[in-house]
Amino acid sequence: MARIKDVAKQAGVSVASVSRVLAGHSKVSESIRQRVLGAVHDLSYRPDLAARRLRSRQTDTIGLIVSDIRNPFFTEVSRAVEDVSYQHHLRVILCNTDEDVEKENLYLDLMRDENVSGVILSPTLTTLAGFRARDYPFPMVLVDRCDRDTAADAVILDNVDAGYRLTTHLIDNGYRRNIFFYGTTSATGRQRREGYVAAMAAHGLEAHAEPVRSTATAEHGRAAAYERLRRRPLPDALVASSGLILLGLTEALRESKLRFPDAVALAGFDDLPWTRLVEPGITVISQPLYEIGRAAIELLLQRIAKPDQAVRRVVLRGELIERGSTAKRNGSAGVSVAA
């Protein structure tokens, strides 16, 4: 395997010159640059990245730690982070915590060991509760999850507003006994529930929120909804705090042979492809997923460049997409059986 000394010898320059070319320094003549790059190509030389990390306090690597890579939300966010990182010649280490604090701590330790330049984190509730950016040796940007008083760079949706607008839409369309299903493992679900409760209260209605415990997967959402649908009277509408829970609610309605919106209306978060394909289409709050990821990596790059700048928070607004699952109710709706 070729070493940097071999590249220097073939190019007829010093090892220091090779290092300057590989580091992208501008104070290198074009002729030397071309000779070094030619030697690198001919010898198939690859830099010793581990040695470089030992010599430098910064690397060309960032970390992205998400709570559930199976969630389409994080898939799209991760794509945006990777796209922008590639444009800036950065590598991305992607880690998945499954909402497990021990795994989260393990990966944060890994980031320290790898001496990454910065980290984008979707924190667990435990980590978020005591989060202090100064506790970490690298710049940090929180994505999707952040409390009001968390002093950290963050990119989030205006979750309270989104929950309020989605619930108000249901009420305006004649649905008054609405049950909100939310994940208990993240701040996001709690904030969207807060918006739901506020909207119900504003219209003089009683709020009913059902926690989806453990990781808020489609399976857990389906089980929680199916249990509620076995009881009477039926609610007017089911509302989900995430795309995975929404999928679970949809499955529960199908298993219970209840059509939406005739028997029970249905709404939730994330404009996933299947929400448009299910008849009659499901009303959702669409999140600007790619924009969330792009804003997160740009905030991180700014923090890396200016470590002492003021904390910044990017708050984006979701779009309410109305579909047939929440069609305006004419009079009282009875239970109908799905085909």
From TrEMBL:
Positions of the HTH lacI-type domain:
2-56
Q: Which InterPro entries match?
A: HTH_LacI, Lambda_DNA-bd_dom_sf, Peripla_BP/Lac1_sug-bd_dom, Peripla_BP_I
Domain of life of the native organism:
Bacteria
Recorded hits in SMART domains, A to Z, give: HTH_LACI
Q: Does the keyword field hold Mitochondrion? A: no
* Annotated keywords: DNA-binding, Transcription, Transcription regulation
Please list the GO terms describing molecular function: DNA-binding transcription factor activity; transcription cis-regulatory region binding
Signal sequence region: none
Entry keyword annotation includes Transcription: yes
Q: Which CDD domains match?
A: HTH_LacI, PBP1_EndR-like
Q: What is this protein called?
A: Transcriptional regulator lacI family
The organism encoding this protein is: Candidatus Competibacter denitrificans Run_A_D11
